[in-house]
Amino acid sequence: MHIVLGGTGVAGRETVAVLARSGRQVRSVSRSASAGAEGVQAFAADLADRAAASRALAGGEVAYFTVALPYSAKTWERGFPPILSAVVDGCLEHRVRLVYLDNVYAYGSVDGVMTEETPIRPTSRKGRLRAKLLDQLDEARSRGLDVTIGRSADFYGPGAGTSAFNTFVLDAVAAGKPPTWFIDPGQPHSLTYTPDVGRALAVLGTDDRARGRTWHLPTGPALTGEELMALAAGAGSRTRTMSKATLRMGALFSTPARETLELAYQYAAPYRFDSSRFEGTFGLSPTSYPEGIAASLDRAAAPA
Predict the structure, then answer these.
(1) What is the mean pLDDT of residues 186-208?
(2) Domains of the chain (ranges plus CATH)?
(3) Average pLDDT value for the chain
(4) What is the DSSP string of the chain?
(5) How does pLDDT run across 259-278, given as a tens digit for each residue?
C-alpha cells in the first residue's frame, strides 16, 4: 500500500494520480476523506493526532509526506512539527518508508546554483522552520526511519493555489489582467511543475536507487521573470513589477504579499535550481515551460 499524506493538496493529488495509474494500491489521507481517483482508498485523519496518524499508516509500504498547510509562517510553525512527529512515529511503528516533499527555503540566500550539496543556511522564518523539520528527520533516522527527501523549487501548475506564480501571473492573465513579477523580472528563476512533482515522488517511492538520499525534483532551466510572463501573457504584453517597497506596502493588506516579503531575496538575485542528478539517474525530464504554463492557464481559465 502506498499512502499519500495530504492526498487532496496539489502535490498530493498529482502523486496519488501517478501511483494509481501505475496499478498500485493507494490510500489518500486528508482531514476529511473525499472521493478521488477510481480505486483509491480515501482515509480521513488528523495527522497531528498520533493515534490517527498510526491508523492512517497501518498496512503501508511507502508513505509520501505532501501535507500542505495555509501559507503562513505562524501556521507552519504551529502545525508542521507535531504533524511530522506523529507521522515519523507511525512510520517507525509500522515499518513504513517515508518520502518527504521539501522546498528550498532552508537553503536561504544562495550565491550560485542550488544543488543537493547546497548547505542548509536559512535566512527567513519559513526557512528556519523547514530546517527544523529536516532536523526532526535526521533524528528519526537515528531511530531507524527509512526516509528519502524530494526537494522542489518554487512550484506552479494546474490548480496550484499557493503558488506565487499561479497567483500573480497565471491567475492575472486568465482574468485579463497584466501579470506581476516581484523585485527584478530580469533575474532568472526556476519553477517546478506540480505534475512533475507527482511523477518524481512516485519514482522516489518505487525505485530502490533513490532510498535514503536527497533529490532535486525535475525542474526546467531557469528563465527570467520577463520570459516566464511572456510565455503566459504573450510576447509584448503589458506586465507589472512589484518593487520591494511596494511588496512591503502590500504586505499590510495582502496575505500572499506579506508571506512572500521575507523571501524577497529569491527575486532580487538569480534563483537557479539544478535537478540533473535526478534526471540522469531516473531518466525523467521536466515538462517544458510552454507546455506547463499552457496547461496551467487552461485550468485557471476554466469555469469554477
Answers:
(1) 98
(2) 2-156+191-220+273-286 (3.40.50.720), 164-187+223-271 (no CATH)
(3) 94
(4) -EEEETTTSHHHHHHHHHHHHTT--EEEEESS----STTPEEEE--TTSHHHHHHHHTT-SEEEE-----S-HHHHHHHHHHHHHHHHHHHHHHT-EEEEEE-SGGG-S-SSEE-TT------SHHHHHHHHHHHHHHHHHTTT--EEEEE--SEE-TT-TT-HHIIIIIHHHHTT---EEES-TTSEE--EEHHHHHHHHHHHHH-GGGTTSEEEPP-PPPEEHHHHHHHHH-TT---EEE-HHHHHHHTTT-HHHHHHHTTTHHHHS-BEE--HHHHHHH--PPPPHHHHHHHHHHHHHS--
(5) 888 999 999 999 999 999 99
